[in-house]
Amino acid sequence: MNLIENILEGLRSIHGNLLRTVLTGLIIAIGIMSLVGILTAVDSMKYSLTQTFSNLGANAFDIRRAGMNNRGRSEGRTEKIYPVISYNQAVMYKEQMPDDARVSLSAHVSGATVVKSDTEKTNPNVNITAGDENYMLNNNINLAKGRDFSTFEHEQGINVAIVGDEIATTLFKDREAVGNFVTFLGRRFKVIGQLEKKGSSMGGSDDRRIIIPLEAGRQIPRTGDATLNITIKTAIHRADELNYVMGEATGIMRKIRQDALGQEDSFEIRRSDSLVQSLDEISGYLKVGGFIIGFITLLGASVGLMNIMMVSVNERTREIGVRKALGATAFQIRQQFLIEAIVICILGGFVGVLLGVLMGNGIASMIGEGGFIVPWLWVVIGMAICVFVGVVSGYYPASKASKLDPIDSLRYE
Known about the structure:
The chain is of the alpha+beta class. It is built from 13 helices and 14 strands. α2 (18-58) packs antiparallel against α12 (376-402). The two termini are 31 Å apart. GO terms for molecular function: transmembrane transporter activity.
């Protein structure tokens, strides 16, 4: 019953000094707002950027045969050469993956290729890639003109092509490339689409490429290795499920490739989310920095709260003397002032959390549309810190009040 009475007495005291309570609560609210606001902004910006990176392929991974990037030797020892991923193996993988995973198959058909129109020809620097119906979508390849391949063209391997911007401008200077014909690798292809201009990077250019249906690429005669090496790309909707889906893909591919138990994988899986991993690292540092800044702000707020509570003790010295004369113990006096400090902190904390969430989402909205985020973890942590600050800031004034002599307190003017 004493606890309930102390709580009610604390609330009455807070109501009786409303202006001081509001000003004290605002000190705490500003501290919590800075803490929750910074952390909310970091989480919201991370979510927005992750969504952007997902559209760029950050939620995908590639599967290729192992050892494609070495030349047979590594650190003085010969590396095992694994067979290429065949078309049948890739199709089996695509069929066995869950429906929520979007799988695309592609193959490098030819590099350093000369492409001709009726009147012009390119330098021998064009790359020919064959892809299935999901290839352009999984690789975020967009069309500037024309259309994508139809299902019939994919299934039948019709000789149609989508050309890069540089090829279109080189071969068809005064006319549209779409609807005309190009010749390469001994075959004639109809141009049905033109890619967006990308520009050059790392000595190469996506503008010097041609995409054809995968089935059409399989029909082109090849010199040397007669098997077309298929590259598999798997995209999922949620980037945070990437590790799980990669594990599932590893099991499926080991079964398809008949890798024996204990044998290393005859293929390699490469994630496409290096940007997301870098973002996670950067956001981690931002959260630590934001927490430190918010904690310093709260430290200043706790000092202000302690000072106000000390003033409150001095103003209510006679009240404390009366309560002790009526039988209140030192514990009850200490409890009353602690409850007042904690209640003030909680009220300020609620306001600070609300303002912090609004501020954080407002800052993040300046970068991109990421949706409205309520970081419940930081809300709970913020309110826990409020209670902690209330206890720390109120304990010394409460302890001082509980130790006052009742006779001296009654004489206090």
